[in-house]
Amino acid sequence: MRLVPFQYAGHNPAVVFINPEQVVAVRAFDKSTDIYVAAPQKDGAPYPVRETVEEVVKLLTA
């Protein structure tokens, strides 16, 4: 399983590791990007990260 590190965009700085195989969507905002991952019985659970949408896509598809 490959895990990609991202800078969490919450109040407390942290690194969040995301499995690219579980990503269902990404959405850009002014100061963050949401990465939506598959979650049981949901449309996707978002993780806000500091990277731009272009950086997120590049890291997830590398």
Protein architecture, described:
15% of the residues lie in helices and 39% in strands. With 62 residues, it is mainly beta. It has one domain (4-53). Strand 3 (23-28) and strand 4 (33-37) form a beta hairpin.
For this entry, give a set of tags.
62 residues, globular, two-stranded antiparallel sheet, three-stranded antiparallel beta sheet, mainly beta
DSSP, total strands: 5
The residue fraction in helices comes out at 10-25%
For the record, give the distance between the C-alpha atoms at the N and C termini, rounded to a whole number: 14 Å
- What's the number of domains? 1
Strand content: 35-45%
Q: Write down the secondary-structure element order.
A: EEEEEH
Quick summary:
Helices cover 15% and strands 39% of the residues.
Blueprint (SSEs and pairs):
Elements: E1 4-7, E2 15-18, E3 23-28, E4 33-37, E5 45-49, H1 53-61
Antiparallel strand pairs: 1-2, 3-4, 4-5
Keywords: Plasmid
